Amino acid sequence: MTAMLEGKVVVVTGAGGGIGREIALLAARQGARVVVNDIGASLSGEGLDAGPAQAVVNEIRGFGGEAVANTDSVSEAASAQRIVGAAMDHFGRIDGVVNNAGILRDRIFHKMSEPEWDAVIKVHLYGAYYISRAAATHMKEQGSGAFVHMTSTSGLIGNFGQANYSAAKLGIAALSKSIALDMQRFNVRSNCIAPFAWSRMTGSVPADTPEEKARLARFQQMTPDKVAPLAVTLLGDQADTSGQIFAVRNNEIVLMSQPRPVRSVHQSDGWTPERVLEHALPALRASYHPLDRSGDVFCWDPV
């Protein structure tokens, strides 16, 4: 049987460890030539180390795969061009992008600083845009390609102390849908995955209460390698799928909803603030969404 990504060239950002590493390894085992991108920084984006990316490259080469390391940052347009350029320079094409690179700078909203906001938005949202935009021209010209973006239920549903991260991750879901719509005519697909997996990033989330500790204990059961099969499948031509949002929790793959009208009210002669208060809001209230967060919605134990 032909490997699913035979002959394809894939860029995986943030691939020096965790989910990105597992995707890069599996993509290579499925025949892809891989650009392993990672700046080797801390979760806050500090410190640079070429070691993590090169270590993954060495693993891939160790089982006979082809890969090159890249340590450019996704957070600037010029360096994102160099990441995509590494694929073109070494392998002559680019068929897939996995936008996985990320950092955390968690802070309760009223204490969040502008640098904390900017840093997370730049890496996650701008990074996904810069890399995707750099690759899109090549994919358009060759008439094929696939994007897989890592979103999060922190953005899709909500979470405490992550306004920067949540805003970026929900923005990525909208970016993916726009790419899917705009690039469909060129046979280019775009999908999102909200991964549940124990990694360096989730390991940094505070766990002060018994409930938070129990939630993190559940996270520890969900290893990064569980996310890789879906990501690699979505990169392959056999997956005729675009514009979708999935979640992966251990051995479970979930198709996530996307915002659609829930309920409406109509006033033939228009609304006044008083009528909105007296009629519209009470009529809609039964369909309001609660102030829940990811852990409230995904409340069952992963299997």
UniProtKB/TrEMBL annotation:
What InterPro entries does this protein map onto? KR_dom (IPR057326), NAD(P)-bd_dom_sf (IPR036291), Peroxisomal_Beta-Oxidation (IPR051687), Sc_DH/Rdtase_CS (IPR020904), SDR_fam (IPR002347)
Domain Ketoreductase, chain residue ranges per copy: 8-204
Origin, by domain of life? Bacteria
Query: Which family, according to UniProt?
Result: Belongs to the short-chain dehydrogenases/reductases (SDR) family.
Name recorded for this polypeptide: SDR family NAD(P)-dependent oxidoreductase
| Phylogenetic classification of the source organism | Bacteria, Pseudomonadati, Pseudomonadota, Gammaproteobacteria, Oceanospirillales
